[in-house]
Protein backbone atom coordinates (compact mmCIF):
# COMPACT_ATOMS: atom_id res chain seq x y z
CA UNK A 1 0.00 0.00 0.00
CA UNK A 2 1.33 3.46 -0.82
CA UNK A 3 2.67 5.96 1.68
CA UNK A 4 0.57 9.07 2.10
CA UNK A 5 2.81 11.58 3.83
CA UNK A 6 4.42 13.17 0.75
CA UNK A 7 0.94 14.15 -0.38
CA UNK A 8 0.19 15.47 3.11
CA UNK A 9 3.23 17.72 2.95
CA UNK A 10 2.18 19.18 -0.39
CA UNK A 11 -1.33 19.85 0.88
CA UNK A 12 -0.06 21.36 4.11
CA UNK A 13 2.08 23.83 2.18
CA UNK A 14 -0.83 24.82 -0.04
CA UNK A 15 -3.32 25.09 2.79
CA UNK A 16 -1.05 26.98 5.15
CA UNK A 17 -0.71 29.68 2.51
CA UNK A 18 -4.47 29.96 2.09
CA UNK A 19 -5.75 31.14 5.46
CA UNK A 20 -9.48 32.00 5.67
CA UNK A 21 -10.46 35.59 4.82
CA UNK A 22 -11.36 37.39 8.05
CA UNK A 23 -14.21 39.13 6.24
CA UNK A 24 -15.71 35.86 5.06
CA UNK A 25 -19.21 35.34 6.38
CA UNK A 26 -19.84 32.72 9.05
CA UNK A 27 -22.29 30.92 6.79
CA UNK A 28 -19.56 30.07 4.29
CA UNK A 29 -18.49 26.43 4.16
CA UNK A 30 -14.98 27.45 3.14
CA UNK A 31 -12.33 27.00 5.77
CA UNK A 32 -11.11 24.38 8.22
CA UNK A 33 -13.46 22.13 10.17
CA UNK A 34 -12.76 19.55 12.88
CA UNK A 35 -15.19 16.70 13.49
CA UNK A 36 -16.87 15.94 16.80
CA UNK A 37 -16.08 12.31 17.44
CA UNK A 38 -14.40 10.85 14.35
CA UNK A 39 -10.90 12.28 14.27
CA UNK A 40 -11.32 14.12 10.96
CA UNK A 41 -10.28 17.55 9.77
CA UNK A 42 -12.04 18.86 6.67
CA UNK A 43 -10.53 21.64 4.55
CA UNK A 44 -12.76 23.30 1.93
CA UNK A 45 -11.13 25.74 -0.47
CA UNK A 46 -13.08 28.26 -2.55
CA UNK A 47 -16.07 25.90 -2.77
CA UNK A 48 -14.06 24.06 -5.41
CA UNK A 49 -12.09 21.31 -3.66
CA UNK A 50 -11.88 19.62 -0.31
CA UNK A 51 -9.32 17.61 1.66
CA UNK A 52 -10.21 15.26 4.49
CA UNK A 53 -7.55 14.27 7.05
CA UNK A 54 -7.44 11.56 9.69
CA UNK A 55 -5.86 13.08 12.78
CA UNK A 56 -4.68 12.11 16.24
CA UNK A 57 -2.63 14.13 18.67
CA UNK A 58 0.54 12.81 16.98
CA UNK A 59 -0.46 12.23 13.34
CA UNK A 60 -2.21 13.72 10.35
CA UNK A 61 -2.91 11.54 7.30
CA UNK A 62 -4.82 12.50 4.14
CA UNK A 63 -8.03 10.47 3.92
CA UNK A 64 -9.51 11.82 0.67
CA UNK A 65 -9.07 14.71 -1.73
CA UNK A 66 -11.95 15.51 -4.06
CA UNK A 67 -14.01 18.06 -5.92
CA UNK A 68 -16.35 20.06 -3.71
CA UNK A 69 -19.34 18.89 -5.75
CA UNK A 70 -18.87 15.40 -4.23
CA UNK A 71 -20.08 16.66 -0.86
CA UNK A 72 -21.86 19.91 -1.70
CA UNK A 73 -25.41 18.53 -1.59
CA UNK A 74 -24.95 16.81 1.79
CA UNK A 75 -23.49 19.79 3.67
CA UNK A 76 -25.43 22.13 5.94
CA UNK A 77 -24.08 25.00 8.00
CA UNK A 78 -25.51 26.68 11.08
CA UNK A 79 -23.46 29.28 12.90
CA UNK A 80 -20.01 27.72 13.20
CA UNK A 81 -21.14 24.10 12.93
CA UNK A 82 -20.98 22.20 9.65
CA UNK A 83 -22.94 18.97 9.23
CA UNK A 84 -22.19 16.30 6.64
CA UNK A 85 -24.76 13.61 5.84
CA UNK A 86 -23.32 10.22 4.93
CA UNK A 87 -25.90 7.48 4.46
CA UNK A 88 -28.24 7.82 7.46
CA UNK A 89 -25.62 9.40 9.76
CA UNK A 90 -24.91 13.09 10.17
CA UNK A 91 -21.37 14.06 11.18
CA UNK A 92 -20.84 17.45 12.78
CA UNK A 93 -17.75 19.65 12.40
CA UNK A 94 -16.71 22.77 14.30
CA UNK A 95 -14.92 25.63 12.55
CA UNK A 96 -11.21 26.07 13.32
CA UNK A 97 -8.91 28.97 12.50
CA UNK A 98 -6.00 26.90 11.27
CA UNK A 99 -5.01 23.35 10.53
CA UNK A 100 -3.74 21.41 13.57
CA UNK A 101 -0.01 21.84 14.03
CA UNK A 102 0.52 18.14 13.39
CA UNK A 103 -0.77 18.61 9.82
CA UNK A 104 1.83 21.25 8.98
CA UNK A 105 4.91 19.07 9.25
CA UNK A 106 5.92 15.80 7.68
CA UNK A 107 7.84 13.06 9.51
CA UNK A 108 10.84 11.59 7.76
CA UNK A 109 10.29 8.45 5.71
CA UNK A 110 12.02 6.33 8.33
CA UNK A 111 9.49 7.45 10.93
CA UNK A 112 6.56 6.65 8.65
CA UNK A 113 7.71 3.04 8.56
CA UNK A 114 8.80 2.85 12.18
CA UNK A 115 6.73 0.12 13.91
CA UNK A 116 6.83 1.96 17.23
CA UNK A 117 5.52 5.20 15.72
CA UNK A 118 2.79 3.30 13.85
CA UNK A 119 1.84 1.58 17.09
CA UNK A 120 1.54 4.95 18.83
CA UNK A 121 -0.75 6.28 16.08
CA UNK A 122 -2.93 3.17 16.39
CA UNK A 123 -2.96 3.48 20.19
CA UNK A 124 -3.93 7.15 20.06
CA UNK A 125 -6.84 6.33 17.76
CA UNK A 126 -8.05 3.64 20.14
CA UNK A 127 -7.62 5.89 23.18
CA UNK A 128 -9.57 8.73 21.58
CA UNK A 129 -12.32 6.80 19.81
CA UNK A 130 -12.90 3.24 21.04
CA UNK A 131 -16.34 3.32 22.66
CA UNK A 132 -16.47 0.22 24.85
CA UNK A 133 -13.70 0.30 27.45
CA UNK A 134 -16.27 0.39 30.24
CA UNK A 135 -18.59 -2.21 28.68
CA UNK A 136 -15.73 -4.69 28.33
CA UNK A 137 -14.06 -3.83 31.67
CA UNK A 138 -10.80 -2.86 29.97
CA UNK A 139 -7.94 -0.93 31.56
CA UNK A 140 -6.52 0.67 28.47
CA UNK A 141 -3.44 2.25 30.03
CA UNK A 142 -2.26 -1.12 31.36
CA UNK A 143 -2.94 -2.89 28.06
CA UNK A 144 -1.18 -0.13 26.11
CA UNK A 145 1.97 -0.22 28.25
CA UNK A 146 2.11 -4.00 28.16
CA UNK A 147 1.84 -4.22 24.39
CA UNK A 148 4.19 -1.30 23.81
CA UNK A 149 6.89 -2.98 25.89
CA UNK A 150 6.51 -6.22 23.92
CA UNK A 151 6.83 -4.42 20.61
CA UNK A 152 9.86 -2.42 21.81
CA UNK A 153 11.76 -5.68 22.33
CA UNK A 154 11.21 -6.67 18.69
CA UNK A 155 10.18 -3.57 16.66
CA UNK A 156 9.42 -5.28 13.34
CA UNK A 157 6.44 -5.13 11.00
CA UNK A 158 5.49 -8.69 11.87
CA UNK A 159 5.56 -7.94 15.59
CA UNK A 160 3.58 -4.74 15.00
CA UNK A 161 0.93 -6.73 13.15
CA UNK A 162 0.71 -9.38 15.88
CA UNK A 163 0.65 -6.73 18.62
CA UNK A 164 -2.25 -4.81 17.06
CA UNK A 165 -4.13 -8.02 16.32
CA UNK A 166 -3.80 -9.06 19.96
CA UNK A 167 -5.08 -5.69 21.14
CA UNK A 168 -8.10 -5.87 18.82
CA UNK A 169 -8.90 -9.31 20.16
CA UNK A 170 -8.70 -8.08 23.76
CA UNK A 171 -10.92 -5.12 22.89
CA UNK A 172 -13.60 -7.62 21.89
CA UNK A 173 -14.45 -5.27 19.03
CA UNK A 174 -16.94 -6.82 16.66
CA UNK A 175 -16.16 -4.35 13.88
CA UNK A 176 -12.38 -4.21 14.21
CA UNK A 177 -10.02 -5.26 11.46
CA UNK A 178 -6.38 -4.79 10.47
CA UNK A 179 -5.20 -4.90 6.87
CA UNK A 180 -1.44 -5.10 6.36
CA UNK A 181 0.60 -6.01 3.27
CA UNK A 182 1.14 -9.34 1.54
CA UNK A 183 4.74 -9.61 2.67
CA UNK A 184 3.65 -9.22 6.29
CA UNK A 185 1.00 -11.91 5.88
CA UNK A 186 3.55 -14.24 4.31
CA UNK A 187 6.02 -13.63 7.13
CA UNK A 188 3.34 -14.25 9.76
CA UNK A 189 2.29 -17.47 8.04
CA UNK A 190 5.84 -18.74 7.71
CA UNK A 191 6.64 -18.05 11.36
CA UNK A 192 3.50 -19.68 12.74
CA UNK A 193 3.59 -23.27 13.85
CA UNK A 194 1.85 -25.85 11.71
CA UNK A 195 -1.04 -26.78 13.94
CA UNK A 196 -3.19 -28.39 11.31
CA UNK A 197 -4.69 -31.60 12.53
CA UNK A 198 -6.90 -33.89 10.52
CA UNK A 199 -10.10 -35.34 11.84
CA UNK A 200 -11.25 -38.65 10.48
CA UNK A 201 -14.83 -37.44 10.76
CA UNK A 202 -14.82 -33.85 9.60
CA UNK A 203 -18.21 -32.15 9.66
CA UNK A 204 -19.34 -30.17 6.61
CA UNK A 205 -18.63 -26.43 6.58
CA UNK A 206 -21.22 -24.02 5.19
CA UNK A 207 -21.16 -20.38 4.13
CA UNK A 208 -23.96 -17.97 5.03
CA UNK A 209 -24.98 -17.33 1.42
CA UNK A 210 -24.97 -21.09 0.79
CA UNK A 211 -27.27 -21.86 3.71
CA UNK A 212 -29.52 -18.92 2.87
CA UNK A 213 -29.96 -20.23 -0.65
CA UNK A 214 -30.88 -23.70 0.60
CA UNK A 215 -33.41 -22.28 3.05
CA UNK A 216 -35.07 -20.03 0.48
CA UNK A 217 -35.33 -22.83 -2.06
CA UNK A 218 -36.90 -25.19 0.46
CA UNK A 219 -39.15 -22.85 2.42
CA UNK A 220 -40.95 -20.99 -0.35
CA UNK A 221 -44.13 -22.62 -1.57
CA UNK A 222 -44.11 -20.11 -4.42
CA UNK A 223 -40.95 -18.25 -5.48
CA UNK A 224 -41.27 -14.87 -7.17
CA UNK A 225 -37.61 -13.75 -7.28
CA UNK A 226 -36.56 -11.91 -10.43
CA UNK A 227 -33.11 -10.54 -11.33
CA UNK A 228 -31.75 -10.71 -7.79
CA UNK A 229 -29.24 -12.92 -6.01
CA UNK A 230 -29.13 -10.94 -2.75
CA UNK A 231 -32.86 -10.82 -2.05
CA UNK A 232 -35.19 -13.74 -2.65
CA UNK A 233 -38.91 -13.49 -2.18
CA UNK A 234 -42.13 -15.43 -2.52
CA UNK A 235 -44.65 -17.15 -0.22
CA UNK A 236 -44.19 -19.56 2.68
CA UNK A 237 -47.83 -20.58 2.27
CA UNK A 238 -50.96 -19.18 0.66
CA UNK A 239 -51.13 -16.10 2.88
CA UNK A 240 -47.62 -15.50 4.28
CA UNK A 241 -45.01 -13.66 2.27
CA UNK A 242 -41.30 -14.37 2.64
CA UNK A 243 -38.34 -12.03 2.03
CA UNK A 244 -34.83 -13.31 2.54
CA UNK A 245 -32.11 -10.66 2.78
CA UNK A 246 -28.64 -12.16 2.29
CA UNK A 247 -26.69 -8.92 2.83
CA UNK A 248 -27.07 -5.17 3.35
CA UNK A 249 -24.56 -4.31 0.63
CA UNK A 250 -23.46 -5.40 -2.89
CA UNK A 251 -26.52 -3.78 -4.48
CA UNK A 252 -24.69 -0.91 -6.19
CA UNK A 253 -23.93 -0.82 -9.90
CA UNK A 254 -20.28 0.20 -9.77
CA UNK A 255 -19.33 -0.61 -13.36
CA UNK A 256 -16.48 -2.81 -12.11
CA UNK A 257 -13.89 -3.60 -14.81
CA UNK A 258 -14.16 -7.21 -15.95
CA UNK A 259 -10.39 -7.63 -15.74
CA UNK A 260 -10.47 -6.62 -12.06
CA UNK A 261 -13.20 -9.19 -11.32
CA UNK A 262 -11.19 -11.90 -13.06
CA UNK A 263 -8.12 -10.97 -11.04
CA UNK A 264 -9.65 -10.46 -7.59
CA UNK A 265 -13.05 -12.14 -7.64
CA UNK A 266 -16.33 -10.21 -7.63
CA UNK A 267 -16.56 -9.23 -3.95
CA UNK A 268 -12.92 -8.10 -3.63
CA UNK A 269 -13.19 -6.20 -6.92
CA UNK A 270 -16.37 -4.58 -5.62
CA UNK A 271 -14.57 -3.45 -2.45
CA UNK A 272 -11.58 -2.15 -4.41
CA UNK A 273 -13.89 -0.14 -6.67
CA UNK A 274 -16.02 1.50 -4.00
CA UNK A 275 -12.94 2.44 -1.96
CA UNK A 276 -11.92 4.63 -4.89
CA UNK A 277 -15.20 6.55 -4.62
CA UNK A 278 -16.45 9.14 -2.18
CA UNK A 279 -18.21 7.03 0.45
CA UNK A 280 -21.42 9.05 0.43
CA UNK A 281 -21.82 8.60 -3.34
CA UNK A 282 -21.17 4.88 -3.00
CA UNK A 283 -23.85 4.54 -0.29
CA UNK A 284 -26.35 6.34 -2.53
CA UNK A 285 -25.68 3.74 -5.23
CA UNK A 286 -26.33 0.95 -2.72
CA UNK A 287 -29.67 2.52 -1.78
CA UNK A 288 -30.65 3.02 -5.41
CA UNK A 289 -29.85 -0.62 -6.18
CA UNK A 290 -31.88 -2.08 -3.32
CA UNK A 291 -34.74 0.34 -3.99
CA UNK A 292 -35.29 -1.10 -7.46
CA UNK A 293 -35.48 -4.62 -6.08
CA UNK A 294 -37.77 -3.72 -3.17
CA UNK A 295 -40.21 -1.97 -5.51
CA UNK A 296 -40.78 -5.34 -7.17
CA UNK A 297 -40.79 -7.28 -3.89
CA UNK A 298 -43.50 -5.16 -2.32
CA UNK A 299 -45.60 -5.20 -5.46
CA UNK A 300 -45.49 -9.00 -5.63
CA UNK A 301 -46.28 -9.52 -1.94
CA UNK A 302 -48.78 -6.70 -1.42
CA UNK A 303 -51.76 -9.04 -1.12
CA UNK A 304 -50.35 -11.27 1.60
CA UNK A 305 -51.87 -11.11 5.08
CA UNK A 306 -48.52 -11.39 6.87
CA UNK A 307 -44.83 -11.28 6.04
CA UNK A 308 -41.59 -12.92 7.16
CA UNK A 309 -38.26 -11.10 6.76
CA UNK A 310 -35.37 -13.55 7.17
CA UNK A 311 -32.03 -11.98 8.18
CA UNK A 312 -30.66 -15.02 10.04
CA UNK A 313 -27.77 -15.42 7.59
CA UNK A 314 -27.13 -11.72 6.99
CA UNK A 315 -23.80 -10.35 8.27
CA UNK A 316 -24.68 -6.70 7.56
CA UNK A 317 -23.47 -3.92 5.27
CA UNK A 318 -24.89 -0.41 5.01
CA UNK A 319 -27.44 1.03 7.44
CA UNK A 320 -28.88 3.10 4.61
CA UNK A 321 -29.83 -0.16 2.83
CA UNK A 322 -31.55 -1.39 5.99
CA UNK A 323 -33.48 1.90 6.27
CA UNK A 324 -34.58 1.72 2.62
CA UNK A 325 -35.95 -1.78 3.16
CA UNK A 326 -37.61 -1.03 6.49
CA UNK A 327 -39.21 2.14 5.11
CA UNK A 328 -41.55 -0.02 3.02
CA UNK A 329 -43.30 -1.08 6.22
CA UNK A 330 -43.54 2.32 7.90
CA UNK A 331 -46.72 4.43 7.48
CA UNK A 332 -45.44 7.49 9.37
CA UNK A 333 -42.07 9.12 10.02
CA UNK A 334 -40.71 7.95 13.35
CA UNK A 335 -37.56 7.87 15.46
CA UNK A 336 -36.00 4.41 15.43
CA UNK A 337 -32.39 4.88 16.58
CA UNK A 338 -30.27 7.06 18.84
CA UNK A 339 -26.51 7.24 18.44
CA UNK A 340 -23.44 9.03 19.79
CA UNK A 341 -19.73 8.91 18.99
CA UNK A 342 -16.73 8.55 21.31
CA UNK A 343 -14.90 11.87 21.44
CA UNK A 344 -11.80 11.85 23.62
CA UNK A 345 -12.98 11.31 27.20
CA UNK A 346 -16.54 12.25 26.29
CA UNK A 347 -19.22 11.39 23.75
CA UNK A 348 -20.79 13.54 21.07
CA UNK A 349 -24.35 14.79 21.66
CA UNK A 350 -27.10 12.24 21.04
CA UNK A 351 -28.27 12.06 17.45
CA UNK A 352 -31.68 10.64 16.56
CA UNK A 353 -32.18 8.72 13.32
CA UNK A 354 -35.62 8.76 11.74
CA UNK A 355 -37.27 6.25 9.44
CA UNK A 356 -39.15 7.95 6.65
CA UNK A 357 -42.72 6.97 5.81
CA UNK A 358 -43.98 5.14 2.75
CA UNK A 359 -47.34 6.14 1.22
CA UNK A 360 -48.01 2.46 0.47
CA UNK A 361 -46.61 0.99 3.66
CA UNK A 362 -47.27 -2.67 4.38
CA UNK A 363 -48.96 -2.67 7.81
CA UNK A 364 -50.04 -6.31 8.17
CA UNK A 365 -48.10 -8.40 10.74
CA UNK A 366 -44.39 -8.75 9.96
CA UNK A 367 -42.07 -11.30 11.56
CA UNK A 368 -38.30 -10.75 11.51
CA UNK A 369 -36.19 -13.91 11.79
CA UNK A 370 -32.86 -13.38 13.59
CA UNK A 371 -29.94 -15.49 14.77
CA UNK A 372 -26.46 -15.12 16.26
CA UNK A 373 -25.26 -14.68 12.66
CA UNK A 374 -27.45 -11.59 12.16
CA UNK A 375 -24.85 -8.81 12.31
CA UNK A 376 -24.27 -5.09 11.96
CA UNK A 377 -26.75 -3.42 9.57
CA UNK A 378 -28.97 -6.51 9.73
CA UNK A 379 -29.13 -6.04 13.50
CA UNK A 380 -30.01 -2.41 12.88
CA UNK A 381 -33.05 -3.68 10.98
CA UNK A 382 -34.03 -5.61 14.12
CA UNK A 383 -33.60 -2.43 16.19
CA UNK A 384 -35.79 -0.58 13.72
CA UNK A 385 -38.36 -3.36 14.08
CA UNK A 386 -38.67 -2.54 17.79
CA UNK A 387 -40.23 0.81 16.85
CA UNK A 388 -42.79 -0.64 14.42
CA UNK A 389 -45.91 -1.86 16.24
CA UNK A 390 -46.78 -4.54 13.68
CA UNK A 391 -43.30 -6.12 13.80
CA UNK A 392 -42.29 -9.12 15.93
CA UNK A 393 -38.81 -10.67 16.20
CA UNK A 394 -38.49 -14.48 16.14
CA UNK A 395 -35.30 -16.48 16.67
CA UNK A 396 -32.31 -15.77 18.91
CA UNK A 397 -30.28 -12.77 20.00
CA UNK A 398 -28.40 -11.11 17.18
CA UNK A 399 -24.60 -10.88 17.04
CA UNK A 400 -24.14 -7.68 19.05
CA UNK A 401 -22.01 -5.82 16.48
CA UNK A 402 -23.91 -2.57 16.13
CA UNK A 403 -21.36 0.23 16.22
CA UNK A 404 -20.28 1.84 12.99
CA UNK A 405 -16.70 0.91 12.07
CA UNK A 406 -14.41 3.95 12.17
CA UNK A 407 -11.93 3.24 9.38
CA UNK A 408 -8.43 4.69 9.62
CA UNK A 409 -4.93 4.30 8.15
CA UNK A 410 -1.50 4.05 9.75
CA UNK A 411 1.50 6.07 8.53
CA UNK A 412 2.92 2.92 6.88
CA UNK A 413 -0.23 2.54 4.78
CA UNK A 414 -1.95 -0.25 6.72
CA UNK A 415 -5.70 0.09 7.23
CA UNK A 416 -7.65 -0.66 10.39
CA UNK A 417 -10.96 0.04 12.06
CA UNK A 418 -12.42 0.23 15.55
CA UNK A 419 -15.91 0.76 16.97
CA UNK A 420 -16.52 4.34 18.02
CA UNK A 421 -20.32 4.50 18.22
CA UNK A 422 -22.99 3.70 20.79
CA UNK A 423 -25.95 2.56 18.67
CA UNK A 424 -29.24 2.41 20.59
CA UNK A 425 -32.93 1.82 20.06
CA UNK A 426 -35.41 4.68 20.32
CA UNK A 427 -35.49 4.37 24.12
CA UNK A 428 -31.72 4.49 24.55
CA UNK A 429 -31.09 0.77 25.04
CA UNK A 430 -27.75 -0.51 23.70
CA UNK A 431 -27.30 -4.10 22.49
CA UNK A 432 -23.56 -4.11 21.79
CA UNK A 433 -22.07 -7.55 22.55
CA UNK A 434 -25.37 -9.00 23.84
CA UNK A 435 -27.38 -8.60 20.63
CA UNK A 436 -31.01 -7.63 20.00
CA UNK A 437 -33.28 -10.12 21.81
CA UNK A 438 -36.23 -11.82 20.08
CA UNK A 439 -39.86 -11.53 21.17
CA UNK A 440 -40.29 -15.26 20.54
CA UNK A 441 -37.21 -17.40 21.13
CA UNK A 442 -36.10 -20.34 19.03
CA UNK A 443 -33.19 -22.28 20.51
CA UNK A 444 -30.57 -21.84 17.79
CA UNK A 445 -26.99 -22.99 18.54
CA UNK A 446 -24.64 -20.05 19.14
CA UNK A 447 -21.75 -21.54 17.17
CA UNK A 448 -21.86 -20.51 13.52
CA UNK A 449 -21.35 -23.93 11.94
CA UNK A 450 -23.50 -25.74 14.52
CA UNK A 451 -26.33 -23.34 13.68
CA UNK A 452 -25.88 -23.75 9.93
CA UNK A 453 -25.81 -27.54 10.21
CA UNK A 454 -28.87 -27.61 12.46
CA UNK A 455 -30.83 -25.76 9.75
CA UNK A 456 -29.45 -27.61 6.73
CA UNK A 457 -29.86 -31.04 8.30
CA UNK A 458 -33.55 -30.50 8.95
CA UNK A 459 -34.99 -27.84 6.66
CA UNK A 460 -38.50 -29.13 7.17
CA UNK A 461 -38.24 -28.61 10.93
CA UNK A 462 -36.81 -25.12 10.43
CA UNK A 463 -39.82 -24.08 8.38
CA UNK A 464 -42.23 -25.77 10.78
CA UNK A 465 -40.67 -23.93 13.75
CA UNK A 466 -41.17 -20.59 11.97
CA UNK A 467 -44.81 -21.27 11.15
CA UNK A 468 -45.50 -22.60 14.66
CA UNK A 469 -44.02 -19.44 16.16
CA UNK A 470 -46.22 -17.28 13.97
CA UNK A 471 -49.27 -19.30 14.90
CA UNK A 472 -48.47 -18.99 18.63
CA UNK A 473 -47.99 -15.23 18.32
CA UNK A 474 -51.28 -14.82 16.46
CA UNK A 475 -53.28 -16.38 19.29
For the biggest β-sheet, the strand order reads: 4-3-2-1-7-6-5
> According to CATH, what is the class of the largest domain?
Alpha Beta
Amount of beta strand: 15-25%
Number of strands: 21
Q: What would the principal axes of the Cα set say about the shape?
A: globular
Q: What does the average pLDDT come to?
A: 92
The second-level CATH architecture of the largest domain is Alpha-Beta Complex
Question: In total, how many domains does the architecture comprise?
Answer: 3
Taking pLDDT < 50 over at least 5 consecutive residues as the criterion, the unreliable ranges are 1-24
CATH homology superfamily of the largest domain = 2-enoyl-CoA Hydratase, Chain A, domain 1
Instruction: Specify the structural class.
Output: alpha+beta
Report the end-to-end length measured between terminal Cα atoms: 59 Å
CATH topology (level 3) name of the largest domain: 2-enoyl-CoA Hydratase, Chain A, domain 1
Largest sheet: 7 strands, antiparallel
- Please work out how many helical segments DSSP would assign: 14
Helix content: 25-40%
In angstroms, what is the radius of gyration?
Answer: 24 Å
What does this structure look like?
- With 475 residues, this protein is α+β, with helices and mostly antiparallel strands.
- It has 3 domains: 100 residues, Beta Barrel (Lipocalin), CATH 2.40.128; 82 residues; 233 residues, 2-enoyl-CoA Hydratase, Chain A, domain 1 (Alpha-Beta Complex), CATH 3.90.226.
- The chain is 35% helix and 23% strand.
- The chain has 14 helices and 21 strands.
- A 7-stranded antiparallel β-sheet has the order 4-3-2-1-7-6-5. The protein has a 7-stranded mixed β-sheet with strand order 9-10-11-12-16-17-21, with helices on both faces.
- Strand 2 and strand 3 form a beta hairpin.
- Helix 3 runs parallel beside helix 5.
- The longest helix is centred in the middle third of the chain and has 22 residues.
- The relative contact order is 0.12.
- One of its GO terms (biological process) is proteolysis.
- This is Tail specific protease domain-containing protein.
- It holds the Pfam family Peptidase_S41.
Amino acid sequence: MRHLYPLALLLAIIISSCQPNEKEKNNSVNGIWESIGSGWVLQIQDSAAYSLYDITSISCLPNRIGAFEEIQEVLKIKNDTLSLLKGVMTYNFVRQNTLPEVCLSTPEAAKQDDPLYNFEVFAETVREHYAFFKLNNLRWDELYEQQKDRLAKDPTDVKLYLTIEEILEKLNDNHAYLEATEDVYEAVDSSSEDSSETNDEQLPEYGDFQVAQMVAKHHMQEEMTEDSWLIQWGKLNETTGYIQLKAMWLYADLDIPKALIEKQGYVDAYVTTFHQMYEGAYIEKEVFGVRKIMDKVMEDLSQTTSMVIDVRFNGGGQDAVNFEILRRFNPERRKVVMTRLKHGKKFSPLQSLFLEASPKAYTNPVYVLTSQQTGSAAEALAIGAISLPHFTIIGSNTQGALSTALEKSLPNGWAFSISNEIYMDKDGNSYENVGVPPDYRLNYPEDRQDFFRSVVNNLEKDKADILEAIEALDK
